[in-house]
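Team,

Forwarding the record for the chain on the shared tracking sheet. I've put the sequence and predicted structure together so nobody has to dig through attachments.
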Amino acid sequence: MAVCRNRERMGNRMRKRLVLLAAAAVSMTLSGCGGAKKGDAQTKAETGAAQAAEAGSAVKEEKKESEPSVESQEYISADGSYSITMLKGFEQTDVPLQANGSMMGLDSAAGRPGFSAVSMGSVKSSVPGNPERMESLEDYADHVAHLALDGTGMQVDWQEAEAENAPGMTRTIAREGIARMNGAKGRAYAVYMETEDSYFAVILIGRDADIGEAKQVLSVTLLDSASSQEKGSKAFLSAMTAVLDATNGASVVETYRALGGGAGAGPITEKAKALLSESWEINSAEELYETADWLMSEGHNRDAVEFLKQYGGTDAASREEFAVKAQEAGAGKRESLMAAYDAWSAYGESAVAAWDLSRVGTIMGFGYAAGYCTYEEAMDKMLEAAVKAQELYDSWDSFNQSYLYGYAYWAEESLEDPDSSAAQRAGLVETLAGQANGPFSVDWGTELVKEW
C-alpha cells in the first residue's frame, strides 16, 4: 500500500475545533445586566428614599437573615484529577482532552438562565490547543480565555481581579469583565491556578447576582489522581496514543464520544472525513479497516527494514561503518537510514512497529468521528493494536523508543538534532514518562480486555 509521507499531519484546525465545540457551554445566551429604567426615576427615587428612612437598619438586618444560604455542589472531572465546588444543580458535561487532561462544562441550573461555567485541567506539557508560547500562568490565562471564547461570538474585556491562593496550588490569579454577545451583556469571571506540573482554569459567564453567589462557594480541589484515574485497558489504549494526543491537544475518539453526537458533531464529522481523505487516502469504512490492518501487519516498519537492507544496514559491521554509507545517500535519506539502523539494532524486525501501532488509535478515532465505524468498533481495533504491542515490546520505554525511531524515519530527521521536530517529540515523551500519574504510569503488563 502506498502511504503518503504527510499522513500524520492532522493540523491545528481539527484539534482546535474539537476543543471549541467541547466548550460550547460558554456561549449560552446571556441575560442583560440589571438596571432601573429611566422612565419615572425621579418619583420612584423620592418614594424609595422615604420608605428606606422609615424602615431603618432593623429591616436590613431582618432581610439579611431571611435570605436563603447559597447551596453548593461538588463536580468531579472525568479524569478524576480535580473537583470544583460550585452552585448546586448544574448539568455536567465532560470532555476528555487527552490522556492526562479533561474539560468540564456546567450548564445553567434551574432559575439561573444564561449562567454557565467551563473548567479545564491538564499537565503543563500538554495544554489543549497546543500553544506556541507558555511560560507563565498569565500566558495560560490568555490562551485558555481565547480557546474557550474564540468562535462563540462573545467578547470579554478582561481586567485583573483579587484572588486568594487555592489550597494545593503554587499560584492563583483571577480576572473579570463584561461579556458581550449579540447585543446582550453579562458578567465574566475566571480563576487560573497552577501546581508544579499542572494548570487549571474555571471560567464563569452570567448575571451579576449569579457570578457573585458562585464566587462565594467556588473552589478547586486536587484529588488523588493515582487512585481515581483508570488503570485498565482503556488507560493502556490512551497511553498508546498519548504522545500524538498531547501534540494534537485532544484524544479524538474520547472527545467525540463525550460530545455524544450532539450540537457540533456535524462539522466534526465533515472535518474528520476531509482529514482522513487528505492525509490517509481513506474515504470509506472499508479503506479505514484496510489501513488499520496494514499498520498492524506491515506499515512503515516494513518499509524501514527493507530500505535499510537496500543499503546493507543489516550487514554492517558497526554503526560507524554504516554511517559512512548513509552519508553518501544524501540528506533526508541519511537521517531515515540512521533511524532505521538504530531501530533495527534495538528491536530487529519490529524496528519501528510502535510508530505504526500507535497510529491505529489515531485513524480509528477519526474514523469514528467520520462515521465510518462505531465507538465500540474503534476501541476493538485499538485493542488489537495494543495486544500486538505487548507481544513485540517489553515496556513503555522500548515501545516509546521504537515510536521515536519511527517518527524520525518518517520525518527524515535526526533525534540528535536539537532543532528537529523529532527531538522535540522525544522531549515530550520524556516529559510524559516522567509524570508520576501520567499516561505511562499504567502497568505495561496490564491484562488487555474489552471494557466498553
